[in-house]
UniProtKB/TrEMBL annotation:
Signal peptide bounds: none
Domain ABC transmembrane type-2, first and last residues per copy: 132-368
Record's GO cellular component terms: plasma membrane
GO MF, one example: ABC-type transporter activity
UniProt entry keywords in alphabetical sequence: Cell membrane, Membrane, Transmembrane, Transmembrane helix, Transport
Protein name per the record: ABC transporter permease
Lineage of origin: Bacteria, Pseudomonadati, Pseudomonadota, Alphaproteobacteria, Rhodospirillales
Family matches, as PANTHER family: INNER MEMBRANE TRANSPORT PERMEASE YHHJ (PTHR30294:SF47), MEMBRANE COMPONENT OF ABC TRANSPORTER YHHJ-RELATED (PTHR30294)
Length: 373
């Protein structure tokens, strides 16, 4: 192995990538606009939802409930007649429609339990799922505050004090932006290395490499370090500029320690990208293979849902995936401020899994090169 060959071949990969505007555009988008969109448009977040209110009581209490719905969760409610409610929901104008019955305030003050009807457009799944709970909480708070003006406040036997650690504002954009960075690191590391190999095969430059005094190991290692360096630089930019400065997401731990884990993750995933590039015979085949690999990695690694909520055999199998350990490391460092004494098992696991993937990819790459020779 000659380091000069590895360095020269890596520079060649940079030049080849520079002449590919589609890949350059994908890198720029994945580590800028994609992260911003994922953090500001979280699907489970209730944001400026449309709501209409049918006020058949027209009392101070019903007016108080109307004024309780305001941005950012809801837009100011439309006050409509009962005959309009169904037509507006059929037309998709309202996600929620509240019907306050007659004599609602009188029944509340009399100690009765009047019912308010809430109609929900369930075709808007993300808002419908969380919006009902928001509306229930808002109405309960307003009714309780109104009743306290007329009756003594009951004494609660237990008081619950909530302290939210690591995300005191319960801001979902904090989680969304970091997880999008992690997902894009995985995706780009596979795509860039695999596409680089297939591009050389399609352009016929692999045959040129075969007549040069370079080994398959040098060719493969050059692709790993060059494409890994591109993704590492892009992820550093995304974390420091997009996440910390533009989105104003605080980072609790060491960015340097996270980048060390990112480098090990890139070592594993670029090796997987080369392996997939040797299996696929064309770019369309490679794209299908990437989809089959990325979806399980992202959905079952703990980035979307906690691993503890998954079946035990899935948790055990996913311990062999580098993404599982990378997500654990990233969340511990960036969210909880963990140090090396906490995340060293994940670093060791990433290094071990990466070495195994690199060995398998090298064997496959050497056989592929040998068959072409």
């Amino acid at each position: 192995m000659r380091l000069s060959n590895i360095l020269t071949l890596g520079i060649k990969e940079f030049r080849s990538l520079g002449r590919d505007p589609v890949m350059l555009g994908l890198i720029i988008y994945a580590f800028s606009l994609a992260i911003y969109a994922a953090s500001t448009a979280m699907p489970e977040t209730l944001n400026k939802s449309t709501i209409a209110i049918v006020d058949e009581d027209r009392s101070p209490l019903s007016l108080r409930i109307q004024e309780a719905f305001y941005p950012p969760y809801f837009i100011p409610p439309a006050i409509i007649e009962r005959s309009e409610m169904d037509d507006r929901m059929d037309a998709g104008l309202d996600t929620f429609a509240i019907d306050i019955p007659p004599d609602f305030q009188r029944d509340v003050l009399a100690g009765r339990r009047p019912m308010i009807q809430l109609n929900v457009d369930a075709t808007r799944m993300s808002q419908a799922f969380t919006g009902g709970g928001y509306i229930q909480s808002i109405i309960d708070q307003e009714v309780a505050a109104f009743v306290r003006r007329y009756r003594a406040e009951p004494t609660q036997p237990v008081e619950l004090t909530l302290r939210a650690r690591f995300n005191p504002e319960l801001n979902k954009s904090w989680f969304g932006s970091i997880m999008e960075v992690i997902s894009n690191i995985t995706m780009l590391s596979i795509v860039l290395t695999g596409a680089a190999l297939i591009r050389e095969r399609e352009h016929g430059t692999v045959e040129h490499l075969l007549v040069m005094p370079v080994t398959p190991f040098e060719i493969m290692l050059s692709k790993v370090w060059s494409m890994g360096l591109v993704v590492l630089a892009a992820s550093t930019f995304a974390l420091t500029v997009v996440v910390q400065q533009i989105l104003d997401v605080p980072i609790a731990g060491s960015v340097g320690l996270f980048l060390v884990g990112t480098a090990l993750q890139l070592f594993a995933m670029t090796s997987m990208g080369i392996f997939l590039g040797t299996v696929a015979r064309s770019m369309p085949q490679f794209g299908l293979l990437v989809i089959l690999v990325l979806l399980p990695l992202e959905m079952l690694s703990g980035g979307q849902t906690p691993r503890e909520s998954m079946p035990e055999f899935v948790q055990f199998i996913m311990l062999g995936a580098p993404n599982t350990h990378f997500v654990m490391l990233a969340q511990a460092v960036l969210f909880r401020g963990a140090g090396l004494d906490v995340v060293w098992p994940q670093l060791v696991a990433l290094a071990g899994i990466g070495s195994i993937l690199f060995a398998f990819a090298q064997i496959r790459f050497r056989n592929t090169i040998g068959s072409m020779a």
